[in-house]
């Protein structure tokens, strides 16, 4: 009990002396203020008081105004306040409770009542604090469960696409990291993106090529250049991917609506739908080009959503530096030069500028999540 701090607020020194003596005998640490502004400063100073005894009738800032400020401040909003006054009108008492006070004591003080009320309010405050902690922990667990659900859904879909295009290996992990790196840099250079958006952007990035499940192996794994007809078919993977994610969105919404029978979706479902929404945008737009020469719709400039512009650069860089069935791997330096050549034509100039600033980090990510040898390469080495 000795560590429990109680703030007493009264413009009469005699009242402060009585309260301090009584509470001190109980082992509390007592701090005092004779006016409202001082009380507010002491109330938010560590260690924050566990209880405040507040006189209502004070010159200048009265107790009602002090109470209002306490309840508006996140640091002090949960501190129990016991009103102390000579007034005994029921209207005043009711008004105090409506304003956020926890209890009401009238002057002159009666020691047994004062001690009992203080003990009761401290015990009640302790229980409320435990409840807030439990609720916060429950929310954290729900958020974690939602994060895991998103990760499982997205990784499962992404690996489905990967099974059709096995040479991509850790491509989905690398592009995730590239996209987040670009987004965090651009936030520092004027792009307004929330923490939640960047997190969802990174999480949804692996689905950018989900539409490849609709492309036949004869095209997807062809070792040489595609014919014009094959290229037309290959380009359909962007809208096909967006359609697949849109169907997933509809399934999630339908299942959630049937489960809860509510118009408002729970936070986990809403978060998953937000993630799928960004994933759909990336799948559809990561082959659009800044100058309008990309596909599927030839969008140009800022018509292309930011998510698509970020993934466009991340995807090309990773494709250049890694071996594919139709090409050998480029050096990091050659890939960098190719990206810089595409400034203002293939890529958003601001995204290219971010890439230049983050080039070393791109190389680090590429090395950290590098693909292992293919089965054929492993056999050659063993021989």
TrEMBL record:
Keywords: Phosphoprotein. InterPro entries: CheY-like_superfamily (IPR011006), Cyclic_di-GMP/3'3'-cGAMP_PDE (IPR052020), HD/PDEase_dom (IPR003607), HD_GYP_dom (IPR037522), Sig_transdc_resp-reg_receiver (IPR001789). The keyword Phosphoprotein applies. Pfam families: HD_5, Response_reg. Residues 5-122 form the Response regulatory domain. The modification 4-aspartylphosphate is found at residue 55. The keyword GTP-binding does not apply. Residues 146-371 form the HD-GYP domain. This is Two-component system response regulator. The lineage of its organism: Bacteria, Pseudomonadati, Pseudomonadota, Betaproteobacteria, Burkholderiales.
């Amino acid at each position: 009990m000795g560590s429990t701090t109680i703030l007493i607020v009264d413009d009469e020194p005699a009242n402060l002396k009585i309260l301090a003596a009584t509470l001190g005998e109980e082992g509390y640490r007592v701090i005092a203020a004779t006016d409202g502004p001082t009380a507010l400063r002491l109330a938010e100073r560590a260690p924050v008081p566990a209880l405040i005894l507040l006189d209502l009738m004070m010159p200048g800032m009265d107790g009602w105004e002090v109470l209002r400020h306490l309840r508006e401040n996140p640091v002090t909003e949960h501190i129990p306040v016991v009103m102390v006054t000579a007034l005994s009108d029921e209207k005043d008492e009711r008004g105090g409770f409506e304003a956020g006070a926890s209890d009401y004591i009238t002057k002159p003080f009666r020691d047994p009542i004062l001690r009992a009320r203080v003990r009761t309010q401290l015990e009640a405050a302790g229980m409320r604090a435990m409840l807030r902690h439990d609720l916060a922990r429950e929310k954290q667990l729900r958020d974690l469960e939602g994060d895991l659900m998103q990760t499982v859904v997205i990784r499962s879909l992404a690996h489905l696409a990967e099974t059709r295009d096995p040479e991509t290996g850790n491509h989905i992990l690398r592009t995730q990291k590239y996209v987040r790196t670009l987004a965090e840099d651009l936030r520092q250079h004027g792009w307004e993106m929330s923490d939640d958006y960047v997190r969802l952007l990174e999480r949804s990035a692996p689905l950018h090529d989900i539409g490849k499940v609709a492309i036949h192996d004869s095209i997807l794994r062809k070792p040489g250049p595609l014919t014009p007809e094959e290229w037309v078919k290959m380009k359909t993977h962007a809208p096909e991917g967006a359609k697949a994610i849109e169907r997933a969105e509809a399934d999630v919404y339908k299942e959630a609506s049937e489960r809860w029978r509510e118009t408002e979706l729970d936070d986990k479902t809403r978060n998953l739908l937000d993630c799928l929404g960004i994933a759909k945008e990336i799948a559809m737009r990561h082959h659009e080009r800044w100058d309008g020469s990309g596909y599927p719709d030839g969008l140009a400039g800022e018509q292309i959503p930011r998510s698509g512009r970020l993934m466009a650069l991340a995807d090309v860089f990773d494709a250049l530096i890694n071996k594919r069935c139709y090409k050998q791997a480029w050096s990091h330096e050659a890939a960098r030069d190719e990206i810089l050549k595409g400034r203002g034509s293939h890529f958003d100039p601001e995204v290219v500028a971010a890439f230049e600033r983050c080039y070393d980090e791109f190389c680090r990510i590429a090395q950290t999540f590098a693909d292992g040898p293919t089965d054929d390469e492993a056999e050659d080495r063993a021989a």
